[in-house]
Amino acid sequence: MSPTAAPRATARRAPAPVSKRPDATETLRLILGQLEDMKAEDTVTIDLKGKTAFADAMVVTSGTSNRHVGAIADRVLQNLKKAGVPGTHVEGMPHCDWVLIDAGDVVVHVFRPEVRAFYDIEKMWAGTKGRKKS
């Protein structure tokens, strides 16, 4: 280094972006918005806070066909990923009669109407306060 040259500033790295996981309320809002956009039918939200440890809310909805169920589930999954919800699990995509999406704080069931009527999982939670049609 010559005596007249100024010392070079050390290159600074930009801090890594902070990934903030959406809370249960924000996750639920995101999911319900996607269900509405995808024309899901008969959407019901069940509040599970204080009733079970596996989630804060359960959403049960229907698609009109296997293709519609798959499209709804796929869109919800894509948007959960974009929103930064880590560790989302899905079951039932190959057949799309009943797709389960576990987003941690919120569990989503997307059914074909016949399958939903057969399993009637809402009946298990019928005595639960906080059930509302969305």
- Write down the overall geometry: globular
Query: What's the mean pLDDT score?
Result: 83
The gyration radius over C-alpha positions equals 21 Å
- The CATH topology label is Beta Polymerase, domain 2
CATH H level: which superfamily? Beta Polymerase, domain 2
Number of domains: 1
Describe this structure in words.
The chain has helices at residues 24-37, 66-83, 113-119, 121-124; strands spanning 41-47, 57-62, 89-91, 98-102, 106-111, 132-133. The mean pLDDT is 83. The radius of gyration is 21 Å and the shape is globular. Helix 1 packs antiparallel against helix 2 (66-83). It contains 4 helices and 6 strands, in the order αββαβββααβ. 32% of the residues lie in helices and 22% in strands. It has a single domain, classed as Beta Polymerase, domain 2 (2-Layer Sandwich). By secondary structure, it is of the alpha+beta class. Strand 4 (98-102) and strand 5 (106-111) form a beta hairpin.
Write the layout of secondary structure elements.
Layout: H1 24-37, E1 41-47, E2 57-62, H2 66-83, E3 89-91, E4 98-102, E5 106-111, H3 113-119, H4 121-124, E6 132-133
Parallel strand pairs: 2-5
Antiparallel strand pairs: 1-2, 1-6, 3-4, 4-5
